[in-house]
Amino acid sequence: MNPVDYTPQGPVAVLTLQNPPVNGLGHALRSGIVAGVDRALADPAITAIVITGSDQFFSGGADVREFGTPRSSMSPHLPDVIRALENAGKPVVAAIAGHALGGGLELALGCHFRVALQSATLGLPEVKLGLLPGAGGTQRLPRAIGLEAALNMIVSGAPQKAAAFEGTGLLDQVVDGDVVAAAVAFAQKAAADKTPLKRLRDVKLPTAGADAFLQFARTSVKAAAKGLPAPLACVEAVADSVTQPFDEGLRRERAAFFALMNTPESRAARHVFAAERAAGKLPDIPADTPLRPIRTVGVVGAGTMGGGITMNFLNVGTPVVLLETSQEALDRGLATIRRNYETSAKRGKLTAEQVEQRMGLITPTLSYDSFQDVDLVIEAVFEQMDVKEKVFTQLDAVCKPGAILASNTSYLDINKIAGFTRRPQDVLGLHFFSPANVMKLLEIVRGAQTAKDVMATALALGKQIRKVSVVSGVCDGFIGNRMVARYGAAANALIVAGASPQQIDQALEKFGFAMGPFRMGDLAGLDIGWATRKRKAAEAGVPHDPTVADKLCELGRFGQKTGAGWYRYEPGVRNALPDPVVDQVVAEYRSAKGVTPRKISDEEIVQRCVFAMVNEAARILDEGIAVRASDVDLVYLNGYGFPAHRGGPMCYANEVGLFNVVRTLRGFAAEPGAFDWWAPAPLLRKLAEEGQSFA
Predict the structure, then answer these.
(1) Distance between CA 563 and CA 431 in Å, rounded?
(2) What are the backbone angles phi and psi of residue 4, rounded to the nearest 5°?
(3) Residue 363: how many CB atoms within 10 A of its CB?
(4) 2.60.40.1670, 3.40.50.2000, 3.90.226.10, 3.40.50.80: CATH of 4-261
(5) Pick from 75, 369, 547, 680: most CB atoms within 10 A?
(6) For this structure, is 106 an active site residue?
(7) Domain 480-624+627-689 has CATH 3.40.50.720
């Protein structure tokens, strides 16, 4: 396929960008645009040029498939292409349908005129990748829509509909029909009328009040950016549109773009961008695998998890059959769902009509027989294998052939659960995170016999309900909870060694975690981990050796829900307050273990907690539980509050250097009485020795 189709429509040359799926501005497309413009300029029969894309994408910006390859830096660069458009002696009109984002919008800004479909989406989202627009966006957009509006749009990275820009210098015409036909007519008239060609670079921005506004913007953005360099760099680049000549503003913008490209924050953001696109692909499942239709979903359990899971499907218009064991529990679950939606309505996120529409999609039931026609059932019952067995035995008996049976288990063996049915190929894990209607992560657990079309359907379903889906193999705790067990063990060992819960939480929150391990434990409930540790000891046939957390549980301190855990909590307040009772329990535990507490630095706290996760993740990768290292990062970014600007634990390990990670782990492993899991994992050692990083 030619990357740019050249089709004359009378005296107007229509250049159609053809680089699916998003018309990424790769080298071939950039070259094709310039060649098309040159051809049109050389043809005396052509009086004007229209540039357009597909119905879905005018252009989504840079072609991510060329990132890190020689083609990304080959001429013509995007600024060269824009210069060719801007300096053309015939009218150049952008016809925008679908999305014009990043470099795609910058391309349109370089045209003399712009015609857009009312529903088209325009935006400069580079800040979300730790960057700023690098092809004139910070200089041309302020000249099109004004300094304040442009700065807000660039610093937020939020796209807007074309209708919002009607009457501004950004769009010359907004239409509700055939945008290419409208642009051709506009171009033909501009040529016939000899309309002066408008170049945004020639627009002079008013300077009155600019200094005061920009100083206010610097202060506001600095407070909100929390140390991230890109938002402030965006402010300074936009400021140059007022204070500097256009070409100097372009030069500074380009220099700032390349400086940001080399920051760890941008590397992390681009890593996550690529990771999200890779996560939905499994090496052994073709992209065109037929999907099973999911028209109706069944949910077993209307408690906290079941209700949240139900809302995910109601939000996208999928009917749900919701099962409980008693009318009282069912009514309570329905009331909670309604209350959640009514809270959203009070905040203006839903209308009263939408609340009723969503509630109307629920079929409440007390009988498994109501699942006879559903396409997918998700159980959200107690985390006990005997309870799962009863549920799946009944589901196997009543559900139609081809229905997918899913468990929301956080730890348990999906293969064993599948064995409770006569259809193990239809069984998988769909591990939602609490609150399930809010948290973005969905762990899709693939059993030994889970069919390929079931996996493909689950991945597609995750997209539909707007989750970040990551595939895990079967092991205790899957990816996330298996790693968090090591994280928690490292944190608990630090308590025994001499740190306090407050110091550990504060050190990790300063590193960037949304919440430290002890505050997180209190929020989730300490009894969950207590039960897991006792179960694992029983399964291993060894006595349970209580941790400090277990000692707290023995006192009935389960966290926020009991008003006390690692911290104490006043009624109706979620502030975590230090508690002398915890200090006493810790002191007694240290004494019983013969430990003399020592001073521990914040740096050591971060190293032990984060490197423990990285080491376990390397084992998970080696065992094939996770498909790729970037999947691990997505799990921790979207389910466990790992700081986004660090890109996840594996990305962070790459930044630190795997040699340094291995060296530090060896030091921990050599300490007297050290846990055996401190020994560097074979994969981690291998990569470090070869000078490689996690891919």
Answers:
(1) 28
(2) -135, 115
(3) 14
(4) 3.90.226.10
(5) 680
(6) yes
(7) no
Query: What are the extents of the domains in the chain?
Result: 4-261, 297-472, 480-624+627-689
Residue 623 among the catalytic residues: no
CA atoms of 107 and 136, how far apart (whole Å) = 9
Tokens coding 453: 């079309």
Residue the block writes with tokens 């407070």 = 223
Instruction: Classify the phi-psi angles of 47: left when phi > 0, otherwise alpha if psi is within -120 to 50, otherwise beta.
Output: alpha
- Out of 106, 265, 324, 379, pick the active-site residue: 106
**438 Cβ contact partners less than 8 Å away, ≥ 6 residues apart:** 308
What is the pLDDT at residue 300? 98
What span, in angstroms and rounded, lies between the C-alpha atoms of 637 and 649?
A: 9
Pick the CATH number of 297-472 from 3.30.70.600, 3.30.530.20, 3.30.1360.40, 3.40.50.720: 3.40.50.720
Cβ contacts of 130 within 8 Å, gap of 6 or more: 228, 229, 230, 260, 263, 265, 266, 267, 268, 269, 270, 645
Q: Which of 86, 126, 324, 379 is catalytic?
A: 126
Segment 612-632 shows an average pLDDT of 98
Tell me the one-letter amino acid at 676.
D
Residues ≥6 apart with Cβ < 8 Å to 626: 470, 471, 472, 473, 479, 617, 620, 632
Per DSSP, 244 falls in state S
The kind and range of the H/E element at 133 are: none
> pTM above the 0.70 mark?
yes
